[in-house]
Write a structure and sequence with these properties.
By secondary structure, this protein is an all-alpha fold. It folds into three domains: about 1-65; about 70-105; about 110-215, no CATH class. Helix content is about 85%, strand content about 0%. The protein is built from six helices and no strands. Helix 1 (about 1-30) runs antiparallel to helix 2 (about 35-65), helix 4 packs antiparallel against helix 5 (about 150-175) and helix 5 packs antiparallel against helix 6 (about 185-215). It is elongated and about 120 Å long. The chain starts with a helix and ends with a helix.
Length: about 220
């Protein structure tokens, strides 16, 4: 504050001195009677006054931040936490909007095509499950030839039971989703059903792979 006051005082003093310069320069100008020189001297005096005023203002601006009190660490931490929370909220909202946009990308999907896609997804899921079961049956004897036959039989029975259960669930889902082949089916629901069917297929395949690993052990 003291430095700023000194700078302002210097600026006022420089301005006053510059304002007296035109008076001093005008006296000889009147003696010489050259108006051009007088105008030039006045312009120079005004330019010097403006320059001195700008320098004093820049000095006061540079010294102003040093006069501010030190920032409270607690307040800074709270402000940073609030900023992070807002950033997370904005990111979550953006993700939610992207999901909504993804669902509404194709609002005019043909119900028949959606039903066909769901049926294809279920067929692929069953095929993948059958292939994984066949691979497990082929690889089981070559992994550990000294495996206990009883344990192997139990594990195979469990795997077959799980496979039958998964197949029955897939068939029941196909029966429940049969009405979705009608032309008035909601395309969004059909797309969601297809996504669920694909997710269940992946889950069934993962469980089958897990059973294979357990049987190999």
């Amino acid at each position: 504050a003291v430095a700023a006051a000194i700078a302002r005082a210097k600026a006022r003093k420089a301005k006053q001195e510059n304002s007296t310069e035109p008076v001093e320069t005008e006296a000889p100008a009147e003696q010489v009677e050259d108006p051009k020189k007088a105008a030039v001297a006045a312009a120079i005096a005004r330019a010097k006054a403006r320059k001195a005023q700008q320098e004093s203002q820049s000095e006061s601006v540079e010294e102003a931040p040093s006069e501010e009190p030190e920032v409270d660490p607690k307040k800074a931490a709270v402000a940073a936490a609030i900023a992070r929370a807002k950033a997370r909220k904005a990111q979550q909202e953006a993700q939610a909007e992207s999901v909504e946009e993804a669902l509404s990308v194709e609002p005019e999907v043909d119900p028949k095509k959606a039903a066909v896609a769901a049926a294809i997804a279920r067929a692929k899921a069953r095929k993948a499950q059958q292939e994984s079961q066949a691979e497990s049956v082929e690889e089981a004897p070559s992994v550990e030839p000294e495996v206990d036959p009883k344990k192997a039989a139990v594990a195979a029975a469990i795997a077959r039971a799980k496979a039958r259960k998964a197949q029955q669930e897939a068939q029941s889902e196909s029966v429940e989703e049969a009405p979705s082949e009608e032309p008035k089916v909601d395309p969004k629901k059909a797309a969601v059903a297809a996504a669920i069917a694909r997710a269940k297929a992946r889950k069934a395949q993962q469980e089958a792979n897990k059973n294979n690993t357990e049987e190999n052990e």
